[in-house]
Amino acid sequence: MSGQDDIAWIAADWGTTNLRIWALGAANNTVLHKASARGMSTLAPKDFEGALLELIDECLPENRTTPVIICGMAGSRQGWREAPYRETPCAPPGVGNATIVEPADPRLSVHILPGIKQMAPADVMRGEETQIAGFLSDHPSFAGLICLPGTHTKWVVLEEGTITRFRTCMTGEVFALLKEKSVLQHSLAHEGFCEASFEAAVKEITKSPERLTGELFGIRASSLIAGQTPEAATGRLSGLLIGAELAAVASEFDLQNIAILGRDQLSRVYGAALGILGNQSALLDAESYTVKGLSLAYEAHLKETK
User: Mean pLDDT in the chain?
Assistant: First the structure.
């Protein structure tokens, strides 16, 4: 790692389950990247500063204040300090909308970026708007749909640099609950899934999404009496849930121009499901856009302080 004097500022993405930080130089080059499992759900408000210092204390210069720009759940009602939402339609919020925290450590200057709310239908996001800001810096004229896969997948409409509306789907959380807590846990594979079963399930459920709960129990029945393998059961569960989500999304949004922010396995699965239904999508690096979005906020902070 480079010396402490090379650190100009700290970028942080504080999720529900994880904290990720990047210590960056003046040219926004990454000097240090670290992560911990000390997400918002594990912390009381008084614990946030300590959790942050666990990752960055070694790289903080002693002779000056280092800006820390944070997106995500640190700004939630249960977080470090609540950062009020901006309301759609709006551009991704920047540092001018940030909530300032006064930490005990004098080496820190903390700014928490706000999330976005939608009043009808009611919906919220925290963190994804910063990824979108980074995406827009590379694609300022993009008009279409952004998919941000995760435990709570976001579908976001962009028009002329503005987030006009969005929808959150709890598909990832439902999959985890069914896999870990339901009767289906006895039928599913610990790792891997059958792609053919996934494809068949996506095609079936998008034609008749009202059959979802019955088809879910059919996974258990097929494992008991029809010789269905754990990998086939897992593929079917994933296909049914994501297919039902896509059927709902297709009723609200135009699926002709989709960018998926993510290159992990879940993002690839969403891309595959869209392809099965004849919709093309582009997979893009979500982490780099998170850092880019935080960098835009830092650059705006520099201008404000000059």
Answer: 95
